[in-house]
Amino acid sequence: xxxxxxxxxxxxxxxxIVLALYYxxxxxxxxxxxxxxxGLENFTALLQDPDFIGAVQNTLVITIATLxxxxxxxxxxxxxxxxxxxxxxxVRFLILLPWTAPASLSVxxxxxxxxxxxxxxxxxxxxxxxxxxxxxxLGTYSNMYWLGRAGLxxxxxxxxxxxxxxxxxxxIILAGLNGMPRDIYEQAQIDGAGYFRRLFxxxxxxxxxxxxxxxxxxxxxxFTDIVTVYILTRGGPANSTQVLTTLAFFTGVQGGSLGQxxxxxxxxxxxxxxxxxxxxxFIRRREI
Length: 288
Known about the structure:
Blueprint: H1 3-24, H2 41-47, H3 50-81, H4 88-100, H5 103-113, H6 120-127, H7 150-178, H8 182-190, H9 195-206, H10 208-223, H11 227-232, H12 244-254, H13 258-287
């Protein structure tokens, strides 16, 4: 009975991983028909490549910042949505919209909003007198150039990632809040515990497994995402926003070096496996 599922998993996951491992140990290219075994040369070359080191650092910074921002905002949103108020279903629907929209289309929308010339955020800042004249709070730039300056480009990618991941994290935490025993919360309220004491000493300890699931999904989706960086910056300016997924694509597909591209992609596998094992072990321990 489980044989179809095993075959499905083997074909869908096993074959690509085996091919990636084979490519990473060879000098195969998109323009050649032969592949020669080179051992670990692709991996040793990557460790000496400053672009790869920078991509690792950018990936970690963007992922961790997105994770922290998403988790904090998801807790706030879930706490608000758990309360009873008129029109709650409309608010829930609006919060879920970023998750239901196709990723490429939504990021293209952000590409326009962060445009160096037509950005509505620049217009708003200019109307508030914060941008465009010498001595203004944000400097003498007539535009912010959200995607053209290294720091702002990284911030923009983190912002879009948080916007995309927030609905899923909110739904997960909201489900945990709705399933939490209310008598414990009400007993703490009767005993005189304030809002933050109830939140940190009652709600959070009970919802630790739920937080673990939210952290796991947010980390995996952000760490392996290519859409946001590829559409917004393509790794620029000057590789300041290059991440592992885009570097693997540019090296292996556009650059033609499938071996090095596969080696970069395989670097994601042990990191994801290690983080997943740690988080799942934490969730299991808390449940027990």
